[in-house]
Design a protein that fits this description.
Elements (H helix, E strand, L loop, with lengths): L33 H14 L6 E5 L14 E4 L5 H11 L4 E7 H7 L1 H9 L5 E6 L29 H4 L5 H5 L5 E8 L3 H19 L4 E7 L3 H4 L3 H15 L3 E5 L1 H4 L3
Parallel strand pairs: 1-2, 1-3, 3-4, 4-6, 5-6
Antiparallel strand pairs: 5-7
Helix pairs in contact: 1-7, 3-4
Amino acid sequence: MTIDIIPIEHMQVVYDRPEALACNHTHYCPGCTHSIAHRLVAEAIDELGLREQTILVAPVGCSVFAYNYFTVDGCEAAHGRAPAMATGIKRVSPDKTVITYQGDGDLASIGIAEIIHAAARGEKITTIFVNNAIYGMTGGQMAPTTLPNQKTTSSPSGRDIASTGAPLKISELLAQIDGAVYVVRRSLHDVKHIRQAKKAILTALKVQQAGLGFGLVELLSTCPTNWGMTPVDAMHWVETAMMPYFPLGDYKIADSVHKLG
């Protein structure tokens, strides 16, 4: 069999690292899809030409690692307080694109009031909400989005709904608020859904550029380490366990968003 060797000068680069994504080794655990979320956000920033005007706000938790991976301006908020900090930044600098990048332990627990009231005020910010149904950085405790009967370090026998309540469905909750104009849920467990997530992030940033109101993209994500699974099993668990409880879909798309095209 003869193998044709194509000279490098005849090759064309068809895919490259986004300028908004730093060239650093990842700190995330193997199989964690935070890295995929970063890539999608960076690609969207580049495609819209927003790198020089973007300000990223991330709080405590695994999301705090985001500062290592984006070549945009950023600042760290106290745990759960990213929407409040983003509100101040956006109001002082309305020409900037302000993004909060938050996990479920942060946004849905200590920061639940912050995100609800940011949406109620119709703050013109974009929130990327990474939901992996557990506290990641702090030791795998039960989070507000932990599934019924899911075992964590603080619920070793599984989450008991009778004593802890049901998991919060953030997209469904925020979609009821008038100030929210774009609220969707996507997943990062396979290529098809990753592409859909990318489109949602692009739309959310366009919503902010147009000054339409508050936007949130929820991303179902993995946490193989704290779930006690292999990366492959974790991807499967997103599809078989998380998606039935947190259905993917468009929970709020205002008429003004449809007009963006």
